[in-house]
Amino acid sequence: xxxxxxxxxxxxxxxxxxxxxxxxxxxxxxxxxxxxxxxxxxxxxxxxxxxxxxxxxxxxxxxxxxxxxxxxxxxxxxxxxxxxxxxxxxxxxxxxxxxxxxxxxxxxxxxxxxxxxxxxxxxxxxxxxxxxxxxxxxxxxxxxxxxxxxxxxxxxxxxxxxxxxxxxxxxxxxxxxxxxxxxxxxxxxxxxxxxxxxxxxxxxxxxxxxxxxxxxxxxxxxxxxxxxxxxxxxxxxxxxxxxxxxxxxxx
Length: 251
Known about the structure:
CATH class: Alpha Beta
Shape: globular
Oligomer: single chain
Strand content: 15-25%
């Protein structure tokens, strides 16, 4: 058994009627929307989906971007990329920025009073306009020959991610600019020589979020967690399809 995966977790489970707020991350909201059954088995019963391997290179790009934007943040100046794209904003300075970035131990948080669910999300960056409107920014890394977009079906999870962040900041009393940005770093794999260096094309993709669905999702998650019945499978859940296929072989 992998030391990184515990298929029978006893901690961090939802207990109906508990007084302590129950933490639900942005990624778990997306899990629920994709497959309520897998979400329930994870958060209520204690068996989560096996994790994938960490994307260490993507994390390195994220850290380098944060360091670079933090340098301009400290000076109160716009990053050249913002000027090139005619975005009238500067990196947002706030004492809790590092906490908001910590998706495991912190994040931007909001206690949903009706459900006692603590909704959280770890952000990459926040910019601020002269009108004190916050622009949510999410870093993405890839390597592809085609132009980067957010138009594929699987990009819907990216859009929901942005909308959850916007919802969380609004619930924390901030004025949020309707348009967020995906800062996409696309590594050029077509060079004749590697030379111990990757070169990236950086693209800012605007996305006007609509977080009106988040409130209902939180209520639906609460109802799911408080049910004693196993929910239906997601429409296209590979994990559920796998479990079903295995049962057929074992049966």
